[in-house]
Amino acid sequence: MGVRLDETTTRICKFYQEKKKYQPLAAFIAGFTWDSLTLTRIDLLLDNLILLAYIVLSGVLIALLYLPEVRLKKIPLLGAHPGWLENAIQFFFGGLFSAYVVYYFQSATLSGSWLFLLFLLGLFIGNEFIKSQFRNATFIFSYYFFSVFSFFVFYLPILLHRMHALIFLLSGVISLVLVAGLYSLINTHLIRSEQPARVYRALLIIFITFNLFYFLNIIPPVPLSKKHVGIYHSVRKQNGSYRVSFEKGSWYQPFKTSDDTFHYSQGDTVFCFASVFAPTRLNTKIYHEWEYYNEQTGQWKVTDRSAYKIVGGRDGGYRGFTYKTNLQPGKWRVSVQTAKGQLIARDRFKLAPATEQPVFKTALR
Fold first, then answer.
1. Domains of the chain (ranges plus CATH)?
2. DSSP of 218-248, one letter per residue?
């Protein structure tokens, strides 16, 4: 029995050594899949406490990483296995960026935030392969600053129940003070860098770039996220729900839930109904911007912009709608936005005169 156990252990170790090069990719896929299934609400206290713990622990480990070797050897376990520091930092960064990818993707539309999402995804994937760079002070503190900034961007609005430009700026200032302060302590008391200006310059560049992305509406509007958006012939509130009406799809459209082509008659109204998730007690305004595509100029033209207040807390999102009565045929789209113009969701549809009476379906939202 003991021989068989030894043979099995040997085979497992051999298999591990043969497939070791695929370990980062496997960890990436497993971690992202797990977070996608388990991270549901961005305002859950336990999830945010876990992320905050990751930030604190990774900061502590980064400080230990710069301990002189003589002092590091005196710490039990770490002294005997110094490589564990890099592994642990990589683990915490992986947990942070995996959560950020999930949360920011939930809040984003590719047309508005693809550049930021691509950059965030690159950092997440890159974390699995760049452990060798963790002793480069400029690199590790830039990475750490981005992770701290990304956390406070959505956590402060949850904490303060508001979201606007000043809160975003406050998120950046807090992150900059914390990370620059940590580096200053390490540089002063643990190990002196020959060029500390490089680290501070890198942090400042990230701070400016992050703010530039925000004011250009490239960063997704976390902690808000789309639950549903659709175009309808009618929207009526009924016993705490909304009854929506849309044209019945063809046989090959069994899962149709709204109108992608709206056939209208004289006097009809087109409705845009949206559900937007917001954290508990967060109060803000969202806007529906109606745009018509001008075939001659090849540009979208804003025709209407309507707003309503939303209150956070409902799992299915806060529901609201706007409508338009002056209809003209052609391509249209409705953009669901924050007050600053950050894109939460967008629905495109076509308006066409009805040649016969459409058959309608109804649903509750």
1. 39-215 (no CATH), 225-364 (2.60.40.1930)
2. -S--TT-EEEEEEEESEEEEETTEEEEEEEP
